[in-house]
Amino acid sequence: VQLVESGGGSVQVGGSLQLSCAASGRNFNGCGVGWWRQTPGKERELISSVSHNGVASYADSVRGRFTISQNNDKNTLYLQMNNLKTEDTGVYYCAAACGRWFLGQGTQVTVS
Question: Which of 35, 58, 72, 82 has the maximum number of C-beta atoms within 10 A of its C-beta?
Answer without folding.
Answer: 35
